[in-house]
Design brief:
This protein is 13% helix and 41% strand. It is globular, with a radius of gyration of 17 Å. It contains three helices and 16 strands. It is mainly beta. The protein has one domain. The longest helix is centred in the C-terminal third of the chain and has 21 residues. The strands form four sheets. Strands 4, 6, 9, 11, 13, 14 and 15 form a seven-stranded antiparallel β-sheet that branches. A hairpin with a 2-residue loop joins strand 7 and strand 8.
């Protein structure tokens, strides 16, 4: 069974080609996760870059509670290819990866109180051999340009776990909102706090190259269309 690694925030090294990275600018607020609730962020990779196989990814999480706990997190990756739409946008559909219930340590307990944040690293071994009940990543899968990763924390028992918000990404882009699974129905939400409406988690996805054609005018058009879609979605929700 693979064991997921945890390191202090800021200590994650790049393990492959960076496909998406949003770990540079912490906006100073976080999204608090309710117990057993699936929440996710949709990201876009740059279609001008070669298609890649996912090798590892990571995200930052934190907690103000310095207590012993038995919190688990189920991390999933979906293609946004569902025929079900929300406000005209395709909801998460095909399940590409499911970690199963991973044990997540309390950041404050692990760090000795110096910081309340940890980076959860999922290596290739975690992707190939998830926890019992999980779904391994297809080794032949090239990561879609448009996908959503979600997290479900369970066993909080009154404690708090949240994901710090970062923006803007240094590689790739996101919509600045998040997917919320409401009893099996996906909805798009944003923060309702004035001046803190953006929701973009501190995350990084890395990959290895796969054979692809060289970028063409068609690819340039695809990238422009992707950016236009992001801008329209942000304007619509604003």
């Amino acid at each position: 069974m693979a064991v997921m690694g945890f390191v202090l925030a800021g200590g994650v090294g790049v393990k492959g080609d960076v496909l998406y990275q949003n770990t540079s600018t912490d906006l100073g607020y976080s999204l608090i996760f309710p117990d057993s609730q699936q929440i996710g962020e949709q990201v876009w990779l740059n279609p001008l870059l070669p298609s890649e196989y996912l090798t590892n990814f990571s995200f930052e999480y934190s907690s103000p509670n310095n207590v012993a706990w038995s919190v688990t997190a189920d991390v999933r990756i979906y293609a946004n290819d569902s025929a079900t739409l929300f406000n005209g946008y395709a909801t998460p559909g095909t399940l590409l990866y499911d970690s199963g219930p991973e044990p997540f340590p309390n950041p404050l307990s692990v760090s000795g109180g110096n910081t309340n944040a940890l980076v959860a690293n999922f290596a290739l071994s975690d992707l190939e051999f998830p926890m019992a009940g999980g779904t391994p990543l297809d080794s032949n899968l090239i990561l879609p340009t448009n996908f959503t990763f979600t997290i479900t924390f369970s066993g909080l028992d009154g404690n708090t776990v949240d994901l710090p918000v970062f923006e803007p990404p240094s590689v790739g882009t996101n919509y600045g909102d998040y997917w919320y699974d409401l009893s099996g129905n996906w909805e798009l939400l944003t923060n309702n706090v004035p001046g803190a409406s953006q929701v973009a988690f501190g995350a990084e996805f890395d990959g290895s190259p796969s054979p692809t054609p060289e970028p063409t005018v068609l690819c340039l058009g695809a990238f422009g269309a992707a950016m236009l879609t992001v801008m329209r979605r942000r304007q619509r929700r604003g």
